[in-house]
Amino acid sequence: MASFKKIESFALISVYDKSNLKFLCSLLKKNKIGIISTGSTSKRIKSLGYNCFEISKLTKFEEVLDGRVKTLHPNIYISILHKRNDNKQKQTFKKLKFPKIDFVIVNLYPFSKYINTKDRDTIEMIDIGGPTLLRASAKNYDSITTISSPKDYKLLEINIKNNSGGTDLNFRKKMAEQTFRLTYKYDKEIHNWFSKNNKQNDIKLRYGENPNQDAILKTAKDKRVGNFQIQGKEIGYNNILDIDSGLDFISEFTEPTTIIIKHNNACGVASSGTIKNSFVKALKSDQKSAFGGVVLVNKNIDESLAKLITKNFFEVFVAPSFSKKAINILSKRKNLILIDSKKIPSKKRKVIKSVRMGSLIQQSNSFRLSKKHFNFASKKTNLSKREYEDLLFAFKVVKHTKSNAIVLVKNKQTVGIGAGQMNRYDATKIAIMKYKENFTSKNLVCASDAFFPFVDSLELLIKNNCTSMVAPSGSINDNKIIEFANKNKIKLIFSKVRVFKH
């Protein structure tokens, strides 16, 4: 092979993906650009019938550690990084008597394809020399052309043709930007792999909210769904959302309570002396909506309750424990997902939502509601113990219901829920509609998640057997609301806290 001293410009090629290598070599030869290469790439180039200088011959340093070290040599980086318009740096380079590298053509080990292999195999696919060469050449884009993908060989050909065997600054800068995007993504993949191995576990779900949406559950390694799921089909994105929403609801109650969730809202909530009775009451709250729902209870599921459960269709049942007989009965419903809530963390410290501007992060709304948050606003204050307990029950439910929300309750059982409406009056109408579909009870209590801005909702509630209400204060019409309550002899309580849930 001729001495490199007769060649003015060189391309350093080190590629894992050797597709279109013949095209590249032909392009370089045509434009009298010499080739410097590493081990396997060098062999492939020579097998294609092109000349190239092996890096180890030029640096006089053989590849070591089974190829882990082959391009990490100062002569290579001085050739790539020296400023062509700086006389002192040019002199430093000339003293080396080393080829002048003007093109760096490198693609990386495909790390992402090996993340599910054995750790030692994945580690070997972490490219060290490749990213270093790319970053060095991209940094010196004033003089160096960096090509990081075979897809860009054609663009290189066009640019060389338009620039008499060289490349223009705009092209080099564009390729540099692309290179740093690639190395950033590459390093991020490696970081994510380490993070996943150490702390996190990414679980691919069947799909997101809809079949056209991909989704994963990113969770701590010791909190895999398999640790919580007892039986049933593969858990889905919407199941997880409903379970999480239901856990927020159920956390408010200590006595036997059942929550039935549909689309992140409760359609039935009830507390009773036994968990079986609470389930029966919650189901009766709105049996039509409960179909295909996610049910959560805060006590053990026994054989008797399991038999009741199988008479209805639910997607998911969540409980702190299931008796063996209950599991035997429920196992006949092979698709029914059973979740052990005892193993799921009881509280969320933060609520995080992804938005176009970044991430919204807020403290979880996990404060404990109690009667201390209530103050009478009306003149009428003769609440019975049952009414007081129902008002607190209703306010706990409305706290976790999508705004605008109205909840009607009788004997610790929801009898009407209006959720997620754009105004409070419509939420009230829906709650009353649900009440009329299923109940004829009198003396209902009502909870609102925010203040009543006008008396229209109260008028509707009074016409439909509601005699006691709790709502946060804060409206400019608070005095009108109080005046209306006194005029109609209803019991009105103001809450010190608002419980919006968007």
* Biggest β-sheet: strands ordered side by side in the sheet: 8-13-12-11-9-10
Class per helix and strand makeup: alpha/beta
Q: Given the C-alpha coordinates, what overall shape results? A: elongated
**How far apart are the first and last residues' alpha carbons, in Å?**
73 Å
What does the radius of gyration come to?
35 Å
CATH top-level class of the largest domain: Alpha Beta
What would your notes on this structure say?
The protein has 502 residues and is of the alpha/beta class. The protein has three domains: 4-196, 3-Layer(aba) Sandwich (Rossmann fold); 223-343, 3-Layer(aba) Sandwich (Cytidine Deaminase, domain 2); 369-495, 3-Layer(aba) Sandwich (Cytidine Deaminase, domain 2), CATH 3.40.140. The protein contains 19 helices and 21 strands. The protein has helices spanning 21-30, 39-47, 55-59, 74-81, 87-96, 119-124, 129-139, 153-162, 169-198, 225-228, 237-250, 275-285, 287-290, 303-309, 324-330, 385-399, 424-438, 456-463, 478-487; strands spanning 10-15, 34-37, 53-54, 101-107, 145-147, 200-204, 216-220, 229-231, 257-262, 265-271, 293-297, 314-319, 337-340, 350-355, 358-363, 374-376, 406-409, 414-418, 444-448, 466-472, 491-495. The protein has a six-stranded mixed β-sheet with strand order 8-13-12-11-9-10, sandwiched between helices. A six-stranded mixed β-sheet has the order 16-21-20-19-17-18, sandwiched between helices. A five-stranded parallel β-sheet has the order 3-2-1-4-5, with helices on both faces. A hairpin with a 2-residue loop joins strand 14 and strand 15 (358-363). Helix 7 (129-139) packs antiparallel against helix 9, helix 14 packs parallel to helix 15 (324-330) and helix 17 packs parallel to helix 18 (456-463). The longest helix is centred in the middle third of the chain and has 30 residues, at 169-198. The N and C termini lie far apart (73 Å). The relative contact order is 0.06. The mean pLDDT is 89.
